[in-house]
């Protein structure tokens, strides 16, 4: 047999297996989530639009009633949450900025509302500046301190974040618990993070707060997935959908289980396509590209990568998808020069271990593995425990001849194969 023909047959066999094979333990059943995929209308979106129109009309009749801007901003934020439409998030920020201008930035609650919006836009430096103003005002100081913890952690100011955490880490409120859980996750203490998040879930259930319950279920779903508790993750995504049948994040979580755990690419794509008909987010295209690569469909992969790059050209996204763009440019489009430029700027804006990891990885792909090693030794190793970052560390160490710890990192990464997905798992196996 011609070797080329044999390779083609092998490729076809692998393609069929990747699309249809399932592990011995199947977690999901389409019957459990199909009804959530067939939702005809988004009630939350309709309600938010009605509220927005109501307050816009009120504002038009009484333009001096600046508190109306808060109501309009809230409805825009809800529209963004339910539809993913970035223009709604930007519209909310415009109303909140106007509101704070009218009150001369002397209302800490209004400032915090604007900062929440800026956090969604990844405008963390601006958020920090505003929170310092709110801290001086002192109104509901603990709420400001909790947000200062959030922003400092996002900016990589770890010591500052811990200082603010100490103000409330022994508190038993929902807001305090979820931040303590986030801190444990940052430290790589996943079991502790789960335990605290479970306590937060109970607080939300005791209060019968639908929004907090839904938030708890999806975040616990993520944590359970990272811990390899796939069935628990699936059940919590379903619990979130019981509360809101339009929860795109929960549906995406189920799609990932179907793809990464069950290797059912066709079904994962079906779920994703229904999500994308109801909710907008550029990163959906990257997940579709990953699935297409696993299926051996390079044309579909390239189509979705281009769709992602086209989507983020919308200036309203700002820096929200910068890290994704760096990865795509360096790994898929072979434009490491552009990726390096963006990665260097990202480190200035947000000097976290994850940002430095992307910078190091881009240096490595650009052919400067020695510089990459310098970056990871200074800014990444022992400062983040994210599996993707650890994979990059292993590859960079290997490229520089430091192979003594690579096998240890490899073993740990293989335990995170569900979180990383089948494509990345194959790369890890080649370490």
Description:
The structure is a single chain. This protein has 24 helices and no strands. It is mainly alpha-helical and 431 residues long. Among the domains are: 169-245, Tetratricopeptide repeat domain (Serine Threonine Protein Phosphatase 5, Tetratricopeptide repeat, Alpha Horseshoe), CATH 1.25.40.10; 247-315; 319-431, Serine Threonine Protein Phosphatase 5, Tetratricopeptide repeat (Alpha Horseshoe), CATH 1.25.40. Helix 6 runs antiparallel to helix 7, helix 16 packs antiparallel against helix 17 and helix 20 runs parallel beside helix 22 (387-399). The radius of gyration is 23 Å and the shape is globular. It starts with a helix and ends with a helix. The model is unreliable at 1-24 (pLDDT under 50).
Topology:
Blueprint: H1 3-20, H2 30-37, H3 43-61, H4 67-83, H5 86-102, H6 108-120, H7 124-137, H8 141-154, H9 158-168, H10 174-186, H11 190-207, H12 210-226, H13 230-243, H14 248-261, H15 265-276, H16 283-295, H17 298-311, H18 322-332, H19 336-349, H20 353-365, H21 369-379, H22 387-399, H23 406-414, H24 417-429
Helix pairs in contact: 3-4, 4-5, 5-6, 6-7, 6-8, 7-8, 8-9, 8-10, 10-11, 11-12, 12-13, 12-14, 13-14, 14-15, 14-24, 15-16, 16-17, 18-19, 18-20, 19-20, 20-21, 20-22, 21-22, 22-23
């Amino acid at each position: 047999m011609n070797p080329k023909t044999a390779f083609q047959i092998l490729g076809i066999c692998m393609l069929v297996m990747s699309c249809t094979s399932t592990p011995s333990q199947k977690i999901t059943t389409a019957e459990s989530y199909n009804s959530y995929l067939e939702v005809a209308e988004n009630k939350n979106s309709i309600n938010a639009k009605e509220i927005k129109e109501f307050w816009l009309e009120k504002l038009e009749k009484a333009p001096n009633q600046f508190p109306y801007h808060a109501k309009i901003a809230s409805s825009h934020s809800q529209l963004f949450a339910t539809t993913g439409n970035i223009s709604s998030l930007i519209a909310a920020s415009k109303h909140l900025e106007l509101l704070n201008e009218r009150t001369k930035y002397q209302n800490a609650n209004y400032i915090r509302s604007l900062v929440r919006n800026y956090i969604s836009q990844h405008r963390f430096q601006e958020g920090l500046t505003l929170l310092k103003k709110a801290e001086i005002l002192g109104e509901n100081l603990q709420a400001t301190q909790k947000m200062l913890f959030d922003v400092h952690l996002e900016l990589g100011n770890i010591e500052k974040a811990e200082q603010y955490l100490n103000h409330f880490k022994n508190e038993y409120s929902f807001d305090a618990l979820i931040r303590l859980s986030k801190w444990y996750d940052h430290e790589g203490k996943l079991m502790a993070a789960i335990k605290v998040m479970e306590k937060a879930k109970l607080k939300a259930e005791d209060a019968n707060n639908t929004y907090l319950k839904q938030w708890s279920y999806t975040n616990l779903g993520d944590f359970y997935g990272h811990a390899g508790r796939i069935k628990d993750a699936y059940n919590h995504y379903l619990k979130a959908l019981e509360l809101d049948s339009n929860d795109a994040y929960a549906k995406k979580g189920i799609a990932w289980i179907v793809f990464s755990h069950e290797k059912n690419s066709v079904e994962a794509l079906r779920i994703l396509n229904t999500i994308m008909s109801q909710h907008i987010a550029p990163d959906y295209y990257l997940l579709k590209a990953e699935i297409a690569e696993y299926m051996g469909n390079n044309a579909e992969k390239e189509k979705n990568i281009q769709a992602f790059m086209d989507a983020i050209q919308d200036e309203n996204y700002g820096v929200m998808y910068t890290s994704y763009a760096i990865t795509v440019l360096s790994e898929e489009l072979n434009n490491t020069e552009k990726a390096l430029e963006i990665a260097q700027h990202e480190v200035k804006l947000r000097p976290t271990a994850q940002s430095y990891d992307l910078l190091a990885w881009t240096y490595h792909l650009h052919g400067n593995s020695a510089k990459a090693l310098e970056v990871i030794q200074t800014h990444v190793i022992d400062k983040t425990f994210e599996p993707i970052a650890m994979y990059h560390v292993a590859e960079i160490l290997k490229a520089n001849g430091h192979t003594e710890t690579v096998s240890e990192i490899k073993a740990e990464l293989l335990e995170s194969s569900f979180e990383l997905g089948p494509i990345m798992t194959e790369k890890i196996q080649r370490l």
